[in-house]
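User: Hi! I'm working on a homework problem where we have to compare a predicted structure to a textbook description. Could you give me the structure for the chain below?
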Amino acid sequence: MINRPVTCARSTARWTRRTGAHVIEIPSRTSGRGTVRIADSRLWETYGSIGLLSSYPGLTPWPYTNWGRAARRSLARADVTVPGWLLHLHRTGGGTLPSFLLTVPSSAGTPDPAAEIAALGAVTPARIREELERRFPQGVPAEVRPLHADPEARMAELRAFLPRYRRAALAPFEDSLRAATEEDILLRARILATQGPDRLLGTLRGNGLRVPETGRLVLVPLVFGRGTSLLVRAPNSVTAVSYQAEGAAVLAGGVRSHGGRTGEPARGDRLEILLGRSRAGVVRGLVAPTTTSDLATTLGLAPSTVSEHLTSLVAAGVVRRRRAGVRVLYELDGSGVELLRHLDHGRRVNQP
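Assistant: Happy to help. Predicted C-alpha cells:
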C-alpha cells in the first residue's frame, strides 16, 4: 500500500492507492471531514454491459460494436438469457436500476465479483417490493411481477445468472476492461492532485454525474457506462454513483491516446487513412446520437479536439446536429452512414 499526501489548490487531500481501488479524502462542506472514493466494481460493470445490450437490441454503437457481436454469440452458445424483469427495469428506468440490485463497492483490494454477487442475498423481500412499488406508482408491470411476487426466488436466479453471464460476455475482455478502468482511476487522481476536488467533481458533472452535496461519496467508473446511470444510497450516509470511464475504445481493438495524439492509421483501415485516426473514431462513435463530452470521454480525447472534428464533419455534411432539451446531440447523416458502410469494412449501420 502507498499513502501519499497531496497538497491541492483548495484543500489538503490524502490519496491512498490499493490494488484495484483508490481512496481520496477531501474536506466535507458540512461535516468538516468527508471522503471521496473511486472504486472499481465488477458487478456494476456487468449491469452496465447488460444495459447496453438491452438499449441496442441490434447493432451496439462504436466502440462497443465488436464486443456486442461477440457477447451475443457467446451468450447464445452458452444458452444464457438475461431475465426478462431485469431487461425491463433497464429499459424503463432510463439507464437506472433499483438500488436493491447494487452494493457499495469496497476499497479492500481487487474487486471480488463473487462477493459482490453474494451480497445481493442479504436484500430483504420487503425492501424489493417497496422499491418496485415506488418505482412503478401506477402498478408493477407484468414483466416485473415475477420479481415482486417472489423476490427470494428471482434474486436467487439472478445470483446464479450473473456469473454465467460474466463468463460468456465479459471474461474474454476482462484484461481490457480492467486496464481501462485503472487508467481512468489514475487520471481522476491526477486531476485531484493538480486541480483540486472541485475540478474533479466538476469534470464528472459535465458527463451527467449526479453528485450529492453532503455525505461520503463513492465514484464508480464504468467502461460500459454509456447510457447507464447507477446510484445507491447506503444507510451510513454513503452514496455510490457511476460515471462513464474514459478509454472505452479499448473494446474496439485499440486504445486512443489522450490529448489528440493519434499515431499512424491502422494498416488496411481505409476510414482512418482517409480521415485520420481520431476523426475516424469520432465518425464511428456517432452510430448512435451522443454529445461532445460523452464522445470525448469514450474516445479518450480532449473535448476541444472532438468539437473541432465535429465542426468539420457537420460542414462536410456527414454529421448533423440537433438539440434535445438542454443537450446538443450529434449523429451521422445519410452520407455519413454511407461513408461507414463503404469504407469501414462493410460495417452494418442503422439509418438515422
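For your comparison, note the following. Residues 1-33, 254-263, 346-352 have pLDDT under 50 and may be disordered. DSSP finds 14 helices and nine strands in the chain. Good luck with the assignment!
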